[in-house]
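Re: weekly structure request thread

Next one in the queue (495 aa):
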Amino acid sequence: MTDLNTLTIAQARDALRKKETSATELTQACLARIEGADALNAFVHKTPDLALDQAAAADARLGLGDAPAMCGIPLGIKDLFCTRGVASQAASRILEGFRPEYESTVSQKLLDAGTIMLGKLNMDEFAMGSSNETSTYGNAVNPWRAQGSEAALTPGGSSGGSAAAVAADLCLAATGTDTGGSIRQPAAFTGITGLKPTYGRCSRWGIVAFASSLDQAGPMTKTVRDAAIMLGAMAGHDARDSTSADLPVPDFEAALTGDIRGKRIGIPSEYRMDGMPQEIEALWSRGAEMLRDAGAEIVDISLPHTKYALPAYYVIAPAEASSNLARYDGVRYGHRAKLAQGDGITEMYEKTRAEGFGHEVQRRVMVGTYVLSAGFYDAYYNRARKVRALIKRDFDEVFAGGIDAILTPATPSAAFPLGQMKDADPVAMYLNDVFTVTVNLAGLPGISVPTGLDAQGLPLGLQLIGRPWEEGELLNVADAMERAAGFVSKPGQWW
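Done, posted below.
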């Protein structure tokens, strides 16, 4: 077989079992592709020797005839996941040199399933960003280019390296994390599928924390079926994570029946926002028509507190970040600033954190500390928590009313040029999350599915939001939309 790196997980699984290829050959194809793609800056810590050792072990396991579905599949791992003996920096200078002595639960589950780690993937520093421009490794670059333009585009953030790697066929799939849209927005920008599971479906243990009540790991894949297969390997209860749900993991792939007749799909009026590009509006309408043609009923719904979601998110997330990032002080691991004679521990903290944290992380830590401070806690943080409860109630009422899934845009635009928003008002960048943050605030599953191209030939995605713990049903609706859209476009190779 040729172009093994372009296979989907499902295709590779079948080929491995038919002995049409081997895990080693799959891995070698991906490693060769990675070596020719440094211009994308997607892989920031390559692990070829480890990958080939894992591939040999997978081949031995496959030879015994009783291997899990993900056995032999080469993956990229976002740099936010701790990986034993391999640099895990969360794309921050402050964790320079940190090589964990342990494996995150999600990456360990994938390894136990026989997957192969090709290396660590670029991301926004501590997952704080929407364009992958805050990384200590430099920008990740979208493999797509606008028609007639040589401008480098953002792959989205924070899981920009994961999105770029999957879209460019450097790996068959990748892990991502989603705090306010960091799986779904980059998936939409790069023409791939990105699934954010229900909060608690995948363990957060061993994933460097940004905002603990919002963070959730999920798969970034080439198809909806691949997302279902990979989620099955990632999910499951973990006693080390108090927020991990003690629920059985269903066969998500078996849920892909293709039949959505009679399903009720909600269209929230509040997501029709002033200034929404006509292309996004048209894509949204077309997505609704696709689902209607597949037998679903399209229902207008209201989520009245949506307009408060973004400000509430940008109070809660920085507040939790300021608490989580207090541990990075130069004492135990990572970067430590050089001290002048006479400097004490306070100066060490100040200099280390000033050198180790980038500007966006510093901004969010300061905002978070401010909203948690005496005199402002009730005015900001507690009020944002109350708004969050109202947003969740909106979704609960809609689902209680018989809605099976909700269809919205995934992003307010296609991928934009790198540098375009870097020096602008940070709120302009935060608006990239306008359609995605509600899902995290409510703890719901959401998926971005590529459904079309804009006038410049860049991919656009639509988002489906599901009931809590019903990823199987959500994936089935997403699969129906994927089939109807027939999106098969790939970026041209310029790198």
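The longest helix spans residues 377-400. The chain has 15 helices and eleven strands.
Next request, please.
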